[in-house]
Amino acid sequence: MITLALSKGRILDDSMPMLRSAGIELLEDPEQSRKLILGTSRSDVRVVLVRASDVPTYVQQGGADLGVAGLDVLLEHDSHGLYRPLDLGIARCRLSVATRADFDYASAVRQGSRIRVATKYTRLAREHFAAKGVHVDLIKLYGSMELAPLTGLADAIVDLVSTGGTLKANKLVEVERIMDISARLVVNQAALKVKREPLRALIEAFAGAVTAQPA
Ligand code: ATP
Ligand code: MG
User: How far is the CA of 10 from the centre of ligand 1 (A)?
Assistant: First the structure.
């Protein structure tokens, strides 16, 4: 049995067409079902639904043989024991710094001021500002980062941006792009040895689906 870890929402939505083109259909609609383990049209493949940020843990610890996770989640998490073979090119977005329009980020950076930064991505934010030599006080949040500059909790946020609609709706501006993000297929290294042939075939099927995707 091969267990694939996915998270509900855009990872699942964007993965389903790829699974389909790899010849794998879910037997139930994940949005309708409350089940956390879903069978597929291939009797040797099942899908487990986990929180997006839990995908690396499941795959590292062997709770799943492989999974799909955003590069943001993978880089924020330690990658020990993960084989990261494939950029799936789905769930694309970018990790950026955003501030209120009236906050002069460029001059705060230039003057070497301490900046208060709210984010879910404390590791990535710390690395980014350290590399620039910018002093930051990091404030760890678990959601609704946009609220932090509006309430005076922080000067800036580090968060994912795709269309920029959420920033705009909250009168925030993107002042710096840190990196481009997309979802990756990750594989448990031990499983890759034990279940070599079926996993190789599945990874290749995903690779074929990437090529088949419109750019
Ligand atoms: P949870 O909602 O459980 O707290 P989450 O917010 O990380 O977790 P999603 O919003 O489904 O879960 O995001 C999953 C992944 O999709 C992210 O890790 C990221 O790689 C990608 N993603 C997040 N936001 C966007 C976005 N606005 N546009 C495109 N991709 C995104
Ligand atoms: Mg979310």
Answer: 7
